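Office hours follow-up: a student asked to see two folded examples consecutively, so here they are.
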Amino acid sequence: MNIRNLRSWAGPALLAGTALLLAACGDRQARVAEPEGFAAVDTARISTASAADEWLTYGGTYDEQRHSKLNQINKENVSQLGVAWTYDLATNRGVESTPIVVDGVMYVTSAWSVVYALDAKTGAEKWVYDPAVDRAVGVKACCDVVNRGVAVYDGKVYVGVIDGRLEALNAETGEVIWSKVTVDQSLPYTITGAPRVVNGKVLIGNGGAELGVRGYLSAYDTSSGDLVWRFYTVPNPLKQPDGAASDDAFVKIGNVTWGDTGAWTTDGGGGTVWDSIVYDEVNNQIIFGVGNGSPWNRTFRDPSGGDNLFLSSIVAVDVDTGTYKWHFQTTPGDNWDYTATQTIILADLPLGEGGATRRVAMQAPKNGFFYVVDAATGQYISGDAYVPVNWATGLDANGRPVEVAAARYGKEPFQQTPGPLGGHNWQPMAYNPDLGLAYIPAQEIPQAYAEDPRFASRPTGWNTGIDFSAGVPPIAPPEVAKMLRASLKGRLIAWDPVARKPRWTVEHENAWNGGVLSTAGGLVFQGRLTGDFSAFDAATGDKLWTHELKSGGASGPGTYMIDGEQYVTITTGWGSAFALAAGFGYDEKVSASVGKVVTFKIGGTQEIADTGLAPIDATPKAPAFGSLAMISEGTVHYARNCAVCHGPLGVSSGVLPDLRWSAISGNKDAWKGVVLDGNLAANGMVSFADYLTPDEVEAIRAYVLTQGHTAVKAGGGK
């Protein structure tokens, strides 16, 4: 633990100290006459007070609508917004955190699960907690070492740590109250999602399906950290009970959807719950989204061809016991990394008989269809494509996709949309209940899918069953990257879930834009990949205000009020899955700038400092070498082992080193020392000796140097 600049608190927070002494006496809801302050944050307070003066839970409310009741900042005065304060986060990696604000204090996270407590009015630092993660864990993180935020409850701040820990921190000091390891740390599990807290239980899932794990959702006691219940999302290899809340569900409906052979019996099956977890107060249940299969390719995962429940599903369980209530599978037999972990929003819509109100769950998952299902039963109500979809012609009467035959890809690549980054990814969407509109940060990022011909002989590691080098030329001039860049699109869609179509759309120049905030002031806020933050008219989509952030604005914004002033806030930073795995998607190299918290108010006059790091010398550090056969072999191994962090075609966004210009690429021994010997493991670059031979490592070096020289000859390093 590393506590930095610890200072005493003032105002209402001082009252929390007395209440903290009572924290071990039982559930906070069972007591009466609680003192005001942080220690009184319980289910009732989150339910009634959040998304107004305070922002007490990740989605703003338990329904996760991300719609604030505040209207001081509105369509008439939003043009007067200026920077109130900024705070530098100590990282140049991905930042995805939604700030939590309670009693005038903001809690936010950055890369490597570091937690910050800041004065929400001034940005002054109160404390910092660093969980001291072994940087070697970074190789287990498919999509950067990000963290989406914390939960608050009963005097504690809860954070999921990327190495699999769930920790409860003292809200006043940042000191650890309890720490629990929630995963088998010998396996490639990670945690990047924000915990949710309800009725004395803190809920957390995990990630890692790309590398072969078995997913589950867990509930822990908020006071002691003891495990209360666990729901596995896929069966164990023997299809036997685990002594878990999910046992009955698999005996009754789950096991028959899986065969008895295939990679899932050794690689876990996937189905990680890495993002959306929603408390449905009305039905006393938790609704959560389930991720992709492991491996992605069902031909290898489960040759029987079953639906593989509960992959790519929305699942509801009892909040107290974790027992199964219902499910709806968005992508049966998932074959494409079409997770259903994206934002789930609960709302009351006029979809009942005769226009009566019906409580529903809405989701725009990766597969490109916007779903509305009954929140109490999971019954399918509607589903419509919100982005271009070519893997299915539509949905049948039960909501099952009508697949195109070629989408069950084989040896020939199938250029598919959406690709594995989805029509919508983790960036949270929002819902305005007054206008009846859901705001989707949508995108188009196609992907050529083809079977991996080496899957059966590959060592355990990046576990997809997809040949990412299919159709990729071994020597790719910059024009190839430009062509790929041109295929990327982004848009903000105001989707009407009753009319089942967009009401308006704003086009962006690129994919991977930010999460969305809706407000009663008639505004929708969204950051963009290009580094600006904008406010749109919620009813029409007209842009009313924009401000340069000087870094990527992908996070979900928040808003709150202190001393009669409304603030709007967002965390910034380059990185995350797109920046690492799609370097070609940037028109220019991004500055590896330090992430920030940037907070605005009417009349703010502060500046955002440029904290970019020194530019890289974009020249190869050794002559190109190797035969075409050697370079082609390097293409395959680079695509399988390196591209997810350093970018396809050898083109990095600049967040992690661009290997074409790396000093070690110019020296065979230094290259081997890093890739095979693990000389930079302390920085997160672990040894790949279990996955690559010395000849394959040298072939990768030949490939990246060739790519570098090809780019320079074409007139530049991009």
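And the second, which I mentioned at the end of office hours:
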Amino acid sequence: MKSALLKYYPLLALLLLCGFYLFKAIDFPAHDFANYYFGGKFLAKGNFSSNIYFPYEFNKAIFDSGYPNIFVSYAPNTPFLAFFFLLFAGFSLAVAKIIFNSLSVVLFFFSIYRLFNHYKIDWRYALLIPVLFLVPIKNNLLFGQVYFLLFFLLSEGWLAYEKKQWKSMSLFWSLAILLKVFPVLLVALFIFRKQWKPLSFWVAFCLLLLGISILFTGVDIWIFYLQEVLPKASNGEIATGFVDNYQSVFMFLKRCFVFETIENPNAFYNYPNLFSALMVAFKIGVLVIGYFISKRNSNTLFVFSYWILAMILLSPYGSTYTFILLLFPFLALLKSEISNTKKVAFCLIIFLINNFSLSIFIGQEFPFSYLRMLLLFLFFVLFLLQFRQKVNWKAVAMLSLFPLFLILFFKTTKPEKSTILLENGPTLVYDYEINNNSLIGHFWDGREKVILWNTKIQTFHPLKLKNNQVFYNNQQLTFDKSHKRKPILIDNKTVLYLSDYDRGIGFYTLRKITLN
């Protein structure tokens, strides 16, 4: 007993930190946990449909349930997440969050214990975890996020992979994909290593769990998710069109090359095709590098850590919660034979990525407002340098640049005629009306009857939507695939309508088209 305490005492600091934020989370607002909880709650009550992905309908249902001070968005979560949270639907919101957080901490500790033992890592390094990962740990517990659970599923799946326990691996990683889609990138690892048997097990378990969830959720909402929600989420459209808080490569390049009159008037250069081409080239480059690393590197933990970094970098949206997954490359570096000086440098970068407050630099001029993303990219590059000789860099360059040129020269973009009406407007405009010759907006922030135009409106006429497109005098005015509502013609020269174009599903804002 005494020897065990002496061996595992470095975990005490992590235990105290988690215990402190478990306690703080009790009086903290429900925050992101409300997404999961009410998804499960409405599923249990039989009120689960595609409306859950539209923030007005979802928050209105939460409001009607007796929770007036909550504003959340279920997208981009899968329907399976609501099925999983049926486990907590029988408890009150506060109790459910306490139970879920407690379970998450237990699973997180179990994974840390298993990883340290499996790779025979010096337990004294565990003292660094509460320091380097302070903010991810804090935010996961305060906000009731699922990334402790995701860390457990990924780590247990990886340990099962190491031991060739394909069924256990498939169960853990299938759950990870159905909860948060991005772990699907691990499919590349099996393909590049030609491991068809474990891949077939994994696919079978995914289909099995998907089928079980469909029995509860129905197939229609899964079709809606795959057709409507997932494409928007994959394009970084969670709330508004430009969100610096995501600190992603996707959003960084979008800031550089996609001009928008209201939301991004200071783009370096308005060249959307270049944005698309660079993103495709970046994704291909990451995959090709992953091919060489997966095929040629015998250090399996390094290989797995590379794919974890790839998941984070390729995601169009990021958060401090996600960075708990940097524990994998952190452990890989500790286990490696690099010098202590390099280990200290890596730890310093991890500390800055995880704990450097966004408020310090988010208000700075672009690109300095993306300091966290730049630090993460620096960490990725330095991580790659540890096995640079394993990669055929000429092949990476050729395979990445070829599609870049194809997109630049052959892709055509139909310019969007409409622009956002409101500068620095609310995240969600759920309705509007013309009253006393004024344009009145209805926002989801408690404000009602907010005048949006100072100019008096003389005439207005409703217009029709055909196949979700705005028409005037039988002429089609819009061509995008966004959801649209309530188009009107004002003073015979301006068309207004609600649209979630380039935004999260159902996050409507007012857009206008000026007629010639």
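Two things to take away from it. The longest strand covers residues 429-435. The chain has three domains: 1-148+162-224, 235-413, 419-514.
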